[in-house]
Amino acid sequence: MTKQIIKIKNMTFKYDQEYLFKDFNLEIEENSFVAIIGKNGSGKSSLAKILAGLIKCDGYINIDGYLLNDLYLKKVRRILSVCLDDADEHFLGATVMDDLAFSLENLGYASSDIEVLIKETSKKFKIDNILERTSEELNNSEKEKVAIASSLIHNPKILLLDEAIHKLNASDRKLVFKILKEKVKNKDLTVIMITHDLEDTLNSDRIILLNNGKIVLDDTKEKVYVDDKIEKWGFNLPFIVKLSHNLMLYDLLDRVYLNEKEVIDKLWGSN
Fold it and tell me: Around Cβ 118, how many Cβ atoms within 10 Å?
């Protein structure tokens, strides 16, 4: 039986005396990769802050068996790691190495284990050549990569990314998504990615569209992109999805494809 690692029931939250969420319900499956999208004011960033325990709300929220409240907040934060959109806010150490060590030291890891985890993580994220640099010496893509690496170094069960991908350059973005998808595939991680860029959603398994604090669309990416209904909510389809729709009009494709290689193979008959 599939485990729901996050359960939200009848959640209510007011902002400036106006309801942003009212009787909101959501479940996230363990070891899934979920993308949450929505226009400004839809509630997606507020949802991230609620799950991170940064703002309080009414209702029932259970994260991996623990209620999200003051009593279990420390346990929840060990399970659910959050990477917000401002990488500078994540940089807590004097250098990249110090920053990677910060959460491990707070969790009581031994010095020898910290050294091993920093070595493994920095190599995986290709930041082993910048360990001695300060935040001021990093470009935006490097800062984002360090922030995500720091959020993952203690092996949380859940990683919540709130617009924490968009400053990555093309090669770093490809690397980060490769790492995240491998961890999900190996059943080591559940990813919740809040993003405004629908190109990023092609890396997810499930897409949730928020509008005025309500879920108006929730399905697999294949079903979400089977037609152009998401454009009615003011979003531009990912390039390969839009291309698929256009080529289907000319009977060149028989369905929507979600990656370029599949389209090339279909059009040019690669075997």
Answer: 22
